[in-house]
Amino acid sequence: MSERRESGFKHRTRLAEAAERLRAVVDPVDRTERVPVTSAVGRVLAADVCAGRPVPHYARAAMDGFAVRAEDTFGASRRSPAVLRDASDGDATDGDATDGNGTTDGTLDPGTALRVHTGSELPSGADAVIKIEDVAVRGGEVEAETAVAGGENVAPVGEDVAEGTTIFEAGRRIRGSDLALCRSVGRSRLDVVARPTVGVVPTGEELVDADPEPGEVVETNGLTVATLVERWGGKPTYRNVVDDEYHALRAAVERDLTKDVVVTTGGTSVGERDLVPDVVDDLGEVLVHGVSLKPGHPVGFGVVRETPVIMLPGYPVSCLVTAVEFVRRAVKRAGHLPLDPHPTTEATLAEKIPSEVGVRTFARVALEGEVTDDSDGDSDGTEDRTGAPTARPVRTGGAGVLSSVAAADGWVPVPESREGIPAGETVAVENWEFEP
Prior knowledge:
Elements lengths: L1 H6 L7 H11 L6 E5 L12 E2 L9 E2 L3 E4 L13 E5 L16 E2 L2 E2 L3 E5 L11 E4 L3 E4 L2 E4 L9 E2 L10 E3 L9 H7 L4 E5 L3 E6 L4 E2 L8 E2 L2 H11 L3 E4 L7 H10 L5 E5 L10 H8 L1 E5 L3 E2 L5 E5 L2 E6 L3 H19 L9 E6 L10 E9 L2 E2 L11 E2 L4 E6 L7 H5 L2 E5 L11 E5 L6
Parallel strand pairs: 5-8, 15-18, 15-19, 16-17, 19-23, 21-25, 24-28
Antiparallel strand pairs: 1-14, 2-13, 3-12, 4-8, 4-9, 5-11, 6-7, 10-11, 20-22, 22-23, 24-30, 25-28, 25-29, 26-27
Helix pairs in contact: 4-7, 5-6
């Protein structure tokens, strides 16, 4: 790779082309696992989910009132009510029939009525419920002041879901609201696609865990990437820092070739210590090295023994941008998850964003204006604003200025076709932090 160091990045791949080439070398995982329903939110179903029991699993009253035989109420009216014996057991409120008081072996006898409440089991022999407001109770008698038809005010067995019905098909990503239905139909565990495994390897002999001396830097890139991988649906293994030494880097990459994806951070540029591309090329093949985006152009990826290896730059902001653009894409594809667009906020640009034609620039911006976070309760991940928001650039350059990310509410991608965006233009601010 000495040629790379001598020539630098004279040729850079367009972001869209690089993303498509990465997609082509990442295979969706074919492993599955069975997990408790309560742990399945966000997971992708590996098999259809069928109802093990009907919902409801018993005929139940849909109204407060009295369970009756519909034929006993035929012709009833306020002037000429149908008089039925009250089969309720004193002040009982559970809707159970009581033998010896209008029921026989738990079955409602003809000419009787039993008090029930919404959700109560309909007693055997009854086929309708007359609403409480349509009866008058006098002593041990119930006067039905209107007629009801068979099945009226009754939720039959399987009205909501019939037994054996497929409620969710394979490939669906389970939502929180799906849990109730799964539990209702008797499913306590679900077969889901296994989370793709990702080895995260931070590189650089200057990196330390804490309390850096002059010339040392606290390792944050690998930790950030590992955290994001988990948020994106992957299962990261965050490795210890590897020095910028060829054999150490080679051993680190080879160790994680059992993972679905390997991600390295640092050592991707054209300096003497930027050895990661050499290692990947010697072990396999570098497919892309150098992408037309800012920050983050030294990003690259290759394949080693059928395992994609994504090489992220060492500058923190470059690492973050390229992780969102490449690692997220790889994890989502490997995990059978949709690559949903980031939620966006439209805002008026307060200052010009400079950019170079042919380069996709990600400009960090802060949103200004009164903000109420999702006040309408729509849970779509977007922010609701009562004022007209403006987007003020935090930084367009400064790939190592980590604080600029914390100060930003998102970034504005400037297309390759444009030489910047002038102040006053409406822009879409991407909230990359939020994962739909």
